[in-house]
Amino acid sequence: KKWLERIEKQLLQEYVLHPDPEKAFEYEPFKSHGGFKQLNKIFDGQLAHIVREINYNLYNYHSKKEQA
Fold first, then answer.
1. How far is CA 66 from each of CA 21, 53, 59, 60, rounded to the nearest angstrom?
2. What is the per-residue pLDDT across 3-53, written as a single tens digit (0 to 9) for each?
3. What share of the chain is helix, strand, coil (3-state, %, to 5)?
4. In this structure, what DSSP letter does residue 68 have?
5. What is the largest CA-CA distance in the chain?
6. Cα–chain-centroid distance for residue 3?
7. Which of 8, 35, 51, 58 has the most CB atoms in a 10 Å sphere around its CB?
8. pLDDT at residue number 61
9. Residue 11 and residue 58 in contact, taking contact as beta carbons nearer than 8 Å
10. Residue 22, Cα to own-chain centre: how many angstroms?
């Protein structure tokens, strides 16, 4: 749950995560907690897919919002 809260806080600051999942988690608040490798273990090796889905959905949401 704490990882999800950290991701949420990051997304409140920026619309999307870095497109390269390893780079997305090499900075704080993720780095000091094991970064990409640790988070990828927690999410059963699915972190890259999760980052792509989050970015895709958030980018599309904000693009549609700006066009309205």
1. 26, 20, 11, 10
2. 788 877 777 676 567 888 888 888 888 899 899 999 999 999 999 998 888
3. 70, 0, 30
4. -
5. 40
6. 10
7. 51
8. 56
9. yes
10. 10
The span from the CA of 47 to the CA of 3, in Å, is 12
Q: What is the pLDDT of residue 47?
A: 92
> Please, are residues 25 and 36 in contact by the beta-carbon 8 Å criterion?
yes
Q: Name the helix (H) or strand (E) containing 9.
A: helix 2-13
What distance in Å separates the CA atoms of residue 66 and residue 47, rounded to the nearest whole number?
28
CB 17 within 8 A of CB 10: yes
Question: How high is the pLDDT of residue 15?
Answer: 57
Structure tokens at 68: 């309205």
* Residue 11, burial from CB neighbour count under 10 angstroms (0-12, 13-18, 19+): middle
Q: Where are the domains of the chain?
A: 2-67
